[in-house]
Specification:
alpha+beta; elongated; 13 helices; 13 strands; 414 residues; 6-stranded mixed sheet
Amino acid sequence: MKKTLPILIVLTLIIVSAVRSCWGGDDDSVSNTEKKELIPIDEKLASEIDSFINSAYRVGSVAVNVFDITAQRELYNYHGEELKRPASCMKLLTCVAALHRLGTRYEYKTSIYADGKIHKDTLYGDLILKTTFDPSFNRDSLFLLLDKLKATNLKAVKGKVKLDMVFTEPMNHEKHWTPGDLKISRMGLIYHGYRRMKKEILYAIPSRTGISLTKDNIVLGRVNPHTSKLLAEMRTPIHYAIDKALKNSSNINAEGLLYPLGYTLNAKGSYRNNGMAYLKKFIREELHLDPAKVCIIDDGCGLCPDDRLSPKLLTAILNYAYKHKRIYTEVYEDLPLSGTDGTLYDRMRKPNVVGKVKAKTGTLTREGGISSLSGYFIGRDNHLLCFSIINNECPVMEGRSWQDKLFSKVIFPK
């Protein structure tokens, strides 16, 4: 009897616990358990941000979202679900999606192959230039590549010079861009299509290598992987494009990322359109959000005034980056630092905020003025937070000033 009594007590407790569980149990105990599992957030900071935003001093149409990454909880939201013109904060979506799809170690490759036999200093076959999507590949890059070819001591080609290009037509100007928005003339040679590349090759190969050729020698072609031998190659890490797109807000490099993205999704059709389709696929499959509700995408750089993103989407992108170490390392390194470099060099330079905010800026003077700011900062409780602020229909300088005051007077007060 002494042995069975403790067993009966244990069984009774188990049954009572199961019944409570079935009926919902003790509400207070469940609530307390949940509270213990949640990491506290800075409610005071949230209240102070709200007071600032709801004060009489407000610029344009404002939407703000702040997410506590450490606690994995939303700290503050003010119309964060609204679709706003993001300007260059669109580049955050393009860059993070590209780093996910292509990888942080992706490299643009431009290569020269020989398809045939090389005897002494003569190629009895075809010389092939294979290009990919490098937005920085210009005339100087071509000269450097041909200098590598010259180092092989090849002096004559008894065949054709073939151009193996992923696309042969020039990049189109997005219909809503103004002529000064993105000068396609500054894009890499690859984006100017076959005719421009042929013209450059016709001049560059003889002048840099001494190999003579005529325009009839230059044709479109493809590398045969089974018979072709690599002679020279240039590689540009994706870091170059991401750094330029984020720190310097380069529209060229952001748009250039759409092409390899689109190519990996579908090697047919418009790579640029396919790239924008991939951005929506990334939102749906990686962020688990409905693209129809959180975005309208018409380019990869944010120049188009028809672009729309919600601040909540932008903080979701920043939080996603944080959860993927290599992506976060790249993005955090490349974002401008307040009062220090990039597009934040001349902003937030007061001692209490300089060097404390890593963020992407966005600016458009069209549609009444657009200013946006999205990035990371360390809170007073040492939590890592991400945020997105979008001011639409306001003078750009006033929007910037309003954002800067939010940080200097509220988030990092003296």
